[in-house]
Amino acid sequence: MAQSKRLTAGITRNNREMADGRTIRYYDTAGQSREAVDQRPVEEQPAIGELRLDPLVNEWIAMAAHRQGRIFLPPKELCPLCPTTGELLTEVPESDFEVVVFDNRSPSLRPPIGDWALPDQVGPDTDTGTAGGKCEVICFTADHGKSFKDLTPARVRVLLEAWIDRTEELSHESYIAHIAPFENRGEEIGVTLSHPHGQIYAYSYLPPRVEKMLAAAVSYKSSTGKILFDEVIAREIRENERIVAQNDRWIAFVPYAARYPFEIHVAPLSPVADLTGLTAEDRDAFPELALEVMKRLDGVFGIEMAYIAAWHQAPVRIGRDVLRLHWQITSVRRAPGKLKYLAGSESAMGAFIMDMRPEQSATQLREVVL
Q1: Angle separating helix axes 153-170 and 280-299, nearest 10 degrees
Q2: Which residue of 29, 177, 191, 338 has the lowest C-beta tally within 10 Å?
Q3: What is the DSSP-derived secondary structure letter of residue 132?
Q4: 255: phi then psi, degrees, rounded to nearest 5
């Protein structure tokens, strides 16, 4: 692994080794020297977890019992994602940073040792596998009090480059099948650290939603000769009811069959399979639209909205001709004091029921005064 790598837009990545052997990657724009040493005592890393098949739906479930004891909502002065200052020795040895990515201390998925393959699926008799994969943490800023919407366009550009770089590098690992960068914000959806950050999950199997999207896209291409997601974008542009924001490279819209009170999809107008396919023009135009979307989301009720923002992209080795990159932002907030709970129909049956029309939430988002 190269210690230093020059990326686009004047961004440089520098790798350093942490005390326990994990890697931390600094993404910088000003030629910073990254020489700080992790002064914490060495701790043994958790063993790889189990991968078990739920034969009723043929879905893999990762068992990561070691995560039960991970840190939970520490006060700011004990935040492990802030820079190291004084006696506070954190995950980031430097006293300041722009964007950093480091291997998760309590990963759900770990790189396997030696030859590795998913067990053959044979119903209840399917063998127990190991939870191969990789989990990384990405910190957007050193400022504990900030949120994504508070970042500068220049910082969002660095963040995008980090997502792209990690997608490119992780794609080379033979055991990785799919890569999903995402951000969780808000205690309502289970955030355990309030510092502005996201995660990158690199799976050794295709997650269920990816499998369903791939099957739908393959079927549509087979019957029509067209790319399903391209047709979705064309419909949104044609109907022009649910578009929230747009520039010459990106479009943001509430999907026709939204599952959540507020759901926004952001996609490049020149379709690509994954983050690495974005052109220089796409990359430079993303921060403006991304920040507008996040500000509109928080502006609907004048409060910080809990959300999940996840990148959907084609798997590493299959479906790259039919699946398209897009950023999905979902919030369970339906009113200032009300959440949409995923109860019986949604959680037990997987059947979503929306309490408001997507056109209504799109109008609310557009009417936010920035």
Answers
A1: 120
A2: 338
A3: B
A4: -65, 150
CATH class name, domain 210-366 = alpha beta
Q: What are the distances in angstroms from CA 103 to CA 16, 135, 166, 202?
A: 11, 6, 11, 11
- Pull the structure tokens for residue 250: 């990106």
CB 225 within 8 A of CB 321: no
Cite the residue boundaries of each domain of the chain with CATH code 3.30.428.10. Answer: 4-205, 210-366
Q: Are 93 and 116 in contact, with CB atoms under 8 Å apart?
A: no
CA angle centred on 69, ends 328 and 142, rounded to 5°: 55
Roughly what angle, to the nearest 10 degrees, separates helices 358-366 and 280-299? 100
- Can you tell me the distance from the alpha carbon of 28 to that of 8, in angstroms, rounded to the nearest whole number? 11
Positions marked catalytic: 197
- Give the containing element (helix H, strand E) for 165: helix 153-170
Listed as own residue / partner, the contacts of 184-190 with beta carbons closer than 8 Å and 24 or more positions apart are 184/307, 184/308, 185/147, 185/148, 185/304, 185/305, 185/306, 185/307, 185/308, 185/309, 186/304, 186/305, 186/306, 186/307, 187/73, 187/306, 188/306, 188/332, 188/333, 188/339, 189/306, 189/307, 189/308, 189/332
Rounded Cα distance, 230 and 112, in Å: 37
CATH topology classification for 4-205: HIT family, subunit A (3.30.428)
Q: Would you give the DSSP letter of residue 68?
A: G
Which residues of the chain fall below pLDDT 50? none
Q: Which tokens in the block code for residue 360? A: 């209504």
Here the tokens at position 320 are: 């790259």
Beta carbons of 135 and 55 less than 8 angstroms apart: no
pLDDT for 2: 57
Q: Is 315 left (phi over 0), alpha (psi -120 to 50) or beta?
A: beta
Please give the Cα distance from 236 to 222 (Å, whole number).
Answer: 23
Q: What DSSP element (H or E) covers 319?
A: none
Q: How far apart, in Å, do the first and last CA atoms of the chain sit? A: 43
Match 């200052």 to its residue by tokens: 85
- Please name every residue paired with 133 in a beta bridge, in sequence order, or none if there are none: 203
